[in-house]
Amino acid sequence: GAAGAIYVYDVCRPESYLSLVNWKNELVKECGEVPGVLLANKIDLEEHRKVTHEMGEELAMRLGGLPYFETSAFTGAGVKEAFQKIAEIIYRTATQK
Hints:
The protein contains four helices and three strands, in the order βααβαβα. The protein has helices at residues 14-18, 20-31, 53-62, 79-95; strands at residues 5-10, 36-41, 68-70. The chain has a single domain, classed as Rossmann fold (3-Layer(aba) Sandwich), CATH 3.40.50.300. The chain is α/β, with parallel strands linked by helices and 97 residues long. α3 (53-62) links the parallel β2 (36-41) and β3 (68-70). Helices cover 45% and strands 15% of the residues. The protein is globular.
């Protein structure tokens, strides 16, 4: 099982964005519904960006209203906030059982 999921795509690679619906379906098939967050990564590469902020927000809604964060593993932008959010969601879910 899984207590939570972090769905990540590369804003420079639309195929990674497009594959997330399938990844979520696979996770649900294996583990059932799991709380999660959606991360748009590599925002530091703005000049190469192909997946817009609006597209990310739309995907977050399509995936069940996931919290959405734009991050950069290179600069660290948004990473702490995203991990704090998934930890908060997992904790809240675990204490409600």
